[in-house]
Amino acid sequence: MQYRRLGANGPVVSRVAFGNSLTAGNQLADDAALACVRAALDAGITTFDTADAYAEGRAEELLGRALAGVDRDSVVVCTKVGRGGGPGPGALSRERIAASLDASLRRLGTGHIDLYQAHLYDDSTPLEETMRAFADAVRAGKVRCVGVSEWAADEIERAAVLARELGVPLVSNQPQYNLLWRVIEAEVLPACAALGIGQMVWSPLAGGVLTGKYRPGQRPPAGSRAVAARGGDVSIQRWNFLSDEVLSAVARAGDLATEAGLTLPQLALAWTLRDEPVTTAVIGASTPTQITRNLTALTTPVDPALLHQVDEALTPVTVHDPALTLSRMLRAKSRNPTLT
């Protein structure tokens, strides 16, 4: 395993993090979810990502159970606030953050969270209120570092100014980023680089599409994420990753990987971790073997020329439009509910 500091002021994290957004407490039996965390630890993964909204808190509970007895200083526990909680105050209001933070600490069975992230931007709450609530959490010792997830560049820049004034700088952004989805490249990455904010990206395998298991003209395999009834189908289909055009391009990329003696997941993960802006990539898994198999991307040499070839093969279906940053998409949809 390799390790890097997250942003200019964040914790040292493993280059691959383990996340349980669609698995723990949802698509996996508890024993399987716990086994995946143990496999991640055995592989040298020190960084674990979850959120209060995942499986309505069950994901945090299972992560806490899995890490019980592990030296607390040896792991980086990351969670998020801002999508769960039901009706009431704004998702990132002071009241909601305070209540959610205490609940997350209880479910995780820990006295502090290493990285607390704002899950999407909250238009209904003044940004100053959100950042002050984060600063108070840091000063109370409940949180070590703060970050955001799926915010647009202008939102990140405004938050960074306030955070710096409050003495608790933003250290990270958690966007979707992979060979197919590159909307952060035009605006978010340059803004974060200038501010010393690191990238902790999610979905480096595009929800499994970049494993090659989905084939053009064929139904998704039984039991795969694309047909799961508990979130996986929505997360993949939202981005139109299952069109025949996309899957045909992915198949061409898979052929290039095979010719080079690599698997497509190895190649896709190596591409995501190829350069400085991405500090760590969050992977999920349904079995321990998926973790160990994919982690070979860190130790397998990949020819830069091959990465360029794969890039070219996927160019016709790659999405770059910064307007499709999730925060912007949801804001636009709130103004016009007819948008998809």
TrEMBL record:
Ranges of residues in domain NADP-dependent oxidoreductase: 19-313
Sorted UniProt keywords: NADP, Oxidoreductase
InterPro entries assigned to the protein according to its UniProt record, in alphabetical order: K_chnl_volt-dep_bsu_KCNAB-rel, NAD(P)_OxRdtase_dom_sf, NADP_OxRdtase_dom
Coiled coil: none
SUPFAM superfamilies in alphabetical order: NAD(P)-linked oxidoreductase
One Pfam assignment: Aldo_ket_red
Family: Belongs to the shaker potassium channel beta subunit family.
Protein's recorded name: Aldo/keto reductase
Organism this protein belongs to: Streptomyces spinosisporus
